[in-house]
Amino acid sequence: MAATLYTSFTHSSISTRSLSSRISSPIKAHFQISEGLPFSPLTPDLKLRITSTRGLCTICCFKNNTPEEPVKKENGLSWPILRRWDVPWNWQTISLTSLACGLSFVLTGLIEAASIQYSGLKIEELSLDEKAEILFADQAIATAVVIAVLYSLTKSFSPLPDDIYRYDWREPFDLKKGWLLWAGIGLGGALAAIAATGAAMSFFNGETPPQRETDALVQLLPLIGSSPISTACLLGITGVLAPILEETVFRGFFMVSLTKWLPTPLAVLVSASVFAGAHLTPGEFPQLFVLGTALGLSYAQTRNLLTPIMIHAFWNSGVILLLTFLQLQGYDIKELIQASS
């Protein structure tokens, strides 16, 4: 279609060349716009090319298909691990959601315990397989409830940025953001760092190990290696449900939210401290803090929650499978756990 433009040319950021000072009065210019191409002077992907011949001004409008140079954020920092998230919610939402997630987890456990009591089930009379199945059901319900609370309190900010609550199975071995590649790197780094931490603790604390009678792992010892059903339930709890819940809450929400005010590396450390403290095992705080740091750094690298979930799952599942193997070989795994503290 043809269009007629009446305008007065002055200095403008959208012109690609300077006009002669002689062209300062209103002029009449004809330009051609192809069908299906909407025109607006403010359209970012359209450019105006202006040429002048013998006092006549020609304006050509064309679509710019040249990819623009990526905009550098965070003062030019290009490392993903240093970039912050674009957090849409404020501190009130963060405080309320964190409190709601904690309360919902505790209340769900209390309601489940009360339901078992009122149903007439006697836990002491149940078989190990039945106890394992109840534990799996309890963890599944708690995971669903807490994640539902988390999403319901943050859904009002939809649509969220693409890198918040992101579970992306694509490109698992991409060098920069491959979730499986960086899960392997993070797991290897976590193993080395935790081994070094354990050695340092043994050196400074002497030979007296801390008591771990209240640890969740010690409480699960009767179920480890007792039967295939119990082992499958334990793997489902520790290798699937717990990683999904904890990584979505501690990394996907809490750590991401902290980057609204803190640099990403500092947010990783703060969230790792909260993660370690939430397990209520003071004797294991250093190791859990190191693990939480590895989980946070790997997530910051890929911006994909599958990365810390896989590290967490491999870590927990590896512990259960190793203890099951040792149990079947006749070792006293409780004594081994106490000795490794």
UniProtKB/TrEMBL annotation:
One Gene Ontology term from the biological process aspect of the record: CAAX-box protein maturation
Transmembrane portions of the chain: 93-114, 134-153, 179-204, 224-245, 266-285, 305-326
Range of residues in the leader sequence: none
CAAX prenyl protease 2/Lysostaphin resistance protein A-like domain sequence ranges: 231-317
Keyword Metal-binding: no
Keyword ATP-binding: no
GO molecular-function term, one example from the UniProt record: endopeptidase activity
Keywords from the named record: Membrane, Transmembrane, Transmembrane helix
InterPro entries: Rce1/LyrA-like_dom (IPR003675)
Name this protein carries in UniProt: CAAX prenyl protease 2/Lysostaphin resistance protein A-like domain-containing protein
